[in-house]
Amino acid sequence: MPLIIVTGHPSSGKSTIVDRLAERFKEKGKEYQIIRDESYGGFDRKNYEFANKEKDLRSWIRSEVQQSLTKNKVIICDGLNYIKGYRYELFLAAKMSKTTYCVIQCSPSADTCHWLNEQKPESSRYSKELIDQLLMRYERPDTKFRWEKPLFEVKIGKAEKALPSEIDDDMMVDLEYPAPRFANIFDEEIVEWICNGTELTENQSTQTVPLAPTNFLHELDRSTQDVVTVILNAQRTAVRGQNLTIPGATDGANTIKFLKLRTLPELNRLRHQFVNISKKDPTTDKEKIITGFVDFLNCNLR
Prior knowledge:
alpha/beta; Rossmann fold; five-stranded parallel beta sheet; two-stranded antiparallel sheet; elongated; Protein KTI12 homolog; KTI12/PSTK; ATP-binding
């Protein structure tokens, strides 16, 4: 169920890189599925000129990724994926599936994007104006964010051959990087990470909140309001230091020490805090609600 997100400029060789990577997974005997924007019904490059059509496309891709992650195969999401927040949403889907994950960024120059665009069939090309617009919109991956790593940057150029192995492409020299068919795609490193890397783990942001019973909020609101009413009435005749007994709570955990007069706004503020906390662990058991609220008040009334 691993997820690979591919991102890059328009006409940056993403699909060629994905096809090469898929071949390597096939050689390793790993099942894979490629999810591409071209698979979306009625897809056209011009969709990126209209916010509503682009939004529908992203929703479709996200839905396909989420559904496919339930299967035992490598999912490769091949698209522009140029919005940082959108990549984060896909990352959360991987977290919920507790699987390995990485990002591949294709990095050509603007001139190379236009050159690669001209190599495509005319029906598959972006307009020059649209490429320039998408280049301006692009939000580059940044490894300071946890959802952008591990990041494998594939440098793309026009050269119809691979870089000589003895040349370090990080050297401060002006290199013409290889075209997508010859670029270094870090296939061995990616396959190793996806197959044997550290799996993502769920945290509070991705854990599924249990479904609450239909009358949960009503019972919670009524029970906590009853406790507040008991306290307001009891403290009128109470002596400082006296224990106020709260009906309905578990014996032994049904008293609140009276230290000073409490106002309705103060008690309601604490009641709202308790209600918000209780939504994470819903129950309609009135005794549990009241006992929990009494304990909460004893910890917070000072």
